[in-house]
Amino acid sequence: MSAERKTLEERAQMSDLERLRHSCAHVMATAILRLWPDAQFAYGPPVESGFYYDFDMKHRLTPDDFEKIEAEMKKVAKENQRFDKKVITREEAIALAESGRLGGLTERPGNPSQFKLDLIAKIPEGEEISCYQNGEFLDLCAGPHVNYTSKCKNTKLMSVASAYYMGDETKPQLQRLYGTAFPTAEELAKHLEQLEEAKKRDHRKLGRELQLFAIDEKVGQGLILWLPKGAILRQELQNFISEELRKQGYQQVFTPHIGKLELYKTSGHFPYYKESQFSPVIENDDLKKAAAEGCTCAEVMERLDGISKKLREEINSRTGADTIPEERVRPDDDLYDGFLLKPMNCPHHIRIFAQSPKSYRDLPVRLAEFGTVYRWEQSGELGGMTRVRGFTQDDAHLFCTEEQVAQEVLGCLSLVKTVLTTLGMNDYRVRVGLRDPDSSKFTGNAEKWDLAEAACRAAAQSLGVPFTEEPGEAAFYGPKIDFVIKDVIGREWQLGTVQVDYVLPVRFDLTYTGADNKAHRPVMIHRAPFGSMERFCGVLIEHFAGHFPTWLAPEQVRILTVSEKSDAFAAEVLSALKGAGLRVTLVNDSDKIGAKIRNAQLDRVPYMLVLGEKEATSGNVAIRHSKKGDLGVKPLAAFVEEITAEVAERKL
Question: Which H or E element spans position 240?
Fold first, then answer.
């Protein structure tokens, strides 16, 4: 069971792997109870990478305990215990919990199964209540399970952590033990190998070793400092995408990192996603006024959150729906002005579009920006470059007629495909995010939503790759197409995105003059091939394990001298390579050549030129590659010609 209760129907739809892992959680609980009988279990669901069980007991688990728990789990599997389901009444369930029998091997007088009593209370009246028993272990559970514990032998305990009961910070902290399981030993071994490879590729580790980026506590969690080498990686990616944007007729713009709060109230970003934004910044004059009036922080926020009657009427009249509730409306003199660290670039681009009248002949207008945005993420959710609080999007917004939507979406998708193909990320799937009609997060006219969703479906079908439709995954203003990339070791990452939006042009009252000389609404398309530069670079670091293709490598060539006798020739080589526009360094210190090569390998420099007396005399260079090893000797001019061509063509 999990803190977020699933329906019986949802539980019955568990995949075979989820069923196995759910069963392994029960086997793990059986083993723990054999070792520590006082353990009180809460819930133990399958998760994407395995399973876990939350529990409370006096002994604090450490990885040193894993071996003996796994040994006991193997015994339980070998005993081939049957998983037996029994449907019981609510009264029977409560009695079993009060006796300590649920989540235990025996009755435990004076030690009731308190977590199970809580879970029983959450089961709706009329819903079937059942328990499962394997051997002596009996647990409140809706299932399903495999038939016998013998199928639960290919398991591995992964980690132990603390977790609040039911995910509630006001409740006690429990121990959470994670494990994984697979049907065969071969699949388990492959998974564990993949995890070891992932550790080697961890972008946080490589980022430090290769001096690409830093996260400094004095700057703030989730805020990336791009070090010089990492800045080169980012700049090369920006140069690449900028070339493609020019080919497709985009115009580059720049916008501030902050905007008036009313801008985001109009767009709907505030308050629809208020919980994931930094708190607004109050105007200095209003701050003084609030202090003089003795306003509490809650009162200040209420006045910042509110919306004027005029703005509410304008938005509601344009959208044709009551999208802003009456309770948020406040008198103008009871509102405070404020600013917001921009969570999105789109409202700024909308205001750029609105700076001058547009004709149908002007459309499509394609505005692009490497714009930095800010989101409030919980500290426990932050992770290196892939989950941050400040990030730069390779963002663009296209304003077009309804007739142009299909073609413009296809153009956006072709751009994403160009990016992924160039970087050798050819294993991906497409996800079409649709609205959930029952959610209040989604705004706008249902008819327009249908048009936008139809355009996204048609575009996804044109790609010729697998795609899925996922209700509830749309942006609040329109459906979207996400690219989910599988890296070289099989992990999936959501990167590029394209979104069709009929809503924001209405909320901002955007118009263009049509061929009939009347005002029409443009359609807006949001697209970001990389998604965020931080996340994308973090994924790239792991995808390439730091061995970037030459065109992306912060240092493309390192010249290594055998002795001072080749220093003069090394200076000539350095000058020639720099003159060709390459990023090159010279190491001519007193270290032995073996150490110099080893250091270059550790730094993942693609090319090393080893220069000794023979090379100085002949004018040739001895070439080594960080992954291919010794490439032999060539004239300097030939090497320069080959490597510049490799960079220009962005070869992998």
Answer: helix 228-247
